[in-house]
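Table S2 (continued). Query chain:
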Amino acid sequence: MTEPLVLVLVGVAALVGWAVLSYNRFVSQRTSIDASWAGIDVELQRRHDLVPNLVESVQGYAAHERELLEAVVRARAEAHRATEPHVDPDTRARAEDELTDRLTSLFALVEGYPQLRADRVFADLQRQLIETEDRLAASRRLYNLEVAAYERRRGAVPSNVIAWALELPPRSLFEIRDPAAAHRPLASF
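Corresponding output:
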């Protein structure tokens, strides 16, 4: 074989090797994104599961606040519907924002009921919700870091060539409003 032919073959082999490695890295990143999204799903489901018990607990003390309690139940139902696979992260985040707003209103209402705040069942549900919100925030941060790394690779040369050739879709960040960031406490944080 002639020397130029060997150089061309080595160059082609290096290019193919790079393409395979780049593709495998994209696969790994997509798998990590999906796994971190599953962590968000778990925490959102836990949050959704706590809401009916919370409403029931408040109802015993503040049954006349029916409109607010129904709004919480509706927001929980909408957020739960948004967990279906075809729902994009932005729509899901807006549904979760609505639930957060309703829960914030519920906990503001509870401030006027000292007996309810002292109720052991309610206090336990409140603590569980706070813990769930903390875990959700951590899961959301992990997911958003994974998505950001994936999107940087999709846009950076030369990986963007592989992303374009394989038509790798963009991924959206999952951003829900943080009540603490808005200086509105959720559940007396």
